[in-house]
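Supplementary notes for students who missed Thursday's class. We covered one full example, reproduced here. Read the sequence, then the structure, then the short commentary at the end.
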Amino acid sequence: MSDMIDMNASLLWWIAAGVVLGAELLTGTVYLMLLSLGMAAAGVAAHLGAPLSAQLLTCATVGGVAMLLWRWRSRSTATAAGPSAGLDLDIGQRVQVTHWSPDHQTSVHYRGAPWQARWQGSMGAPPPGPGEFTILAIEGTRLVLGNTATPHPPA
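Structure (token representation):
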């Protein structure tokens, strides 16, 4: 009977890890993937016969340390490479603009989601017409668009 309970706890941890990993695939947040890693570690602990308190501690420790390491790695990469580190693959990509507002703002569909964008030209000039534009920069969650091709940085 004890083996059945231990196996069920292990199975529950693995199912929870799979559900959280599936949610990560839908949302694209790396943190859910790291949390599922902690849940998988708790599943291994449960399979090895650890009590529930040790399983919970394992989940929290592995998931938390993974998140801290990811955050530390992300910050050190961003500091070394500049403010748009990790986003440089978007620079130079093209988006289709259907219309511009008078204040040079628009909304575009990019990477499967709506993005706010602004024209990089001067505010005194009229907004450009619709068409294909190149992503020149990313300011927070807003794309900066221009009509000149920007080459991708060398790999």
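Commentary. The first strand starts at residue 94 and ends at 97. The beta strands are 94-97, 105-110, 113-119, 131-139, 142-146. If anything here is unclear, bring it to office hours.
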